[in-house]
Amino acid sequence: MLIVRRRGRHETGRIQQEMAEVFQSWVIGFRPLLRSQVGVWRPPTEVFEDERGLVVRVEIAGVREEDLQVVVDDAVLRISGIRRPRDGEQRRTYHEMGIFYGPFMTEILLPFAIELDAVEAVYEQGLLQVSLPRIRASRVVPLRTPELASEEE
User: Fold this and answer.
1) Structure pTM?
2) What domains can be seen in the chain, in order of their start residue?
């Protein structure tokens, strides 16, 4: 589906949005997609820490669960998918279009190591929430020798 972007009087808003994304990538630690990826949009995303680790929420209302993919690869969380238009909506003449359709992707740089086996993703009421628990702190394991073990018995 072709998404037409308005130019001219709305150019200032687009520039402000790009500046906000650059600022967020610097302060919060996630990267906006490069503008060169034509047709791929980035959904509104928030990233925060709780007592267990990192939580990522992505607003993707109207996306079917089977069209979502969540991948943790090295130190990056990658959420991608596609929002498909409803039947018949491709042939409409729009006066205003504020909902993006088509493929999307967001990438979040993970600020610390996570427990890969404990990552959870829940998609409910248009919000995808991914919980990434922090790896537990390491601990020193005491060593026992066989002689000491037999003397204790």
Assistant:
1) 0.65
2) 11-137 (2.60.40.790)
Buried b (16+ CB within 10 A) or exposed e, 51-60: eebbbbebeb
- Report the alpha-carbon distance of residue 6 to residue 16 in Å, rounded: 15
Distance, CA of 75 to CA of 72 (rounded, Å): 7
- Are the C-beta atoms of residues 46 and 57 closer than 8 Å to each other? yes
pLDDT digits (tens, 9 = 90+) for 115-126: 998 999 999 999
How far apart, in whole angstroms, are the C-alpha atoms of residue 50 and residue 39?
A: 34
pLDDT digits (tens, 9 = 90+) for 7-42: 344 455 556 666 666 655 554 444 444 444 567 899
> What phi and psi, each to the nearest 5 degrees, are found at residue 149?
-65, -40
Tally: H helices and E strands in the chain: 2, 8
Per the prediction, the chain carries an average pLDDT of: 79
Tokens coding 81: 């998918």
Determine the residue type at 11.
Answer: E
Distance CA 59, CA 99 (A): 12
